Amino acid sequence: MRDVVIVDGCRTAIGRRKGMYANYRSDELAAVVLEDLVERSNINKGDVEDVILGCVTQVNEQGGNIARTAALIAGFPSHVPGVTIDRQCGSSQQAVHFGAQAIAAGDMDIMIAGGVESMTRAPMFSNMQGTKPSEKLIAQYEIVNQGISAEKIADKWKFTREELDQFSLQSHKRALAAIKKGNFEQEIVPVETENENGQLELLKTDEGPRANTTKEALAELKTVFKEDGKITAGNASQMSDGASAVLLMSSEKAEELGLKPKARITARTVVGSDPTLMLTGPIEATRRALRKANLSIEQIDRYEVNEAFAPVPLAWLNDIGGDPDKLNVNGGAIALGHPLGATGTKLLVSLVNELERTEGRYGLLAICEGMGMANATIIERL
Question: Which of 10, 89, 97, 172 is catalytic?
Answer without folding.
Answer: 89
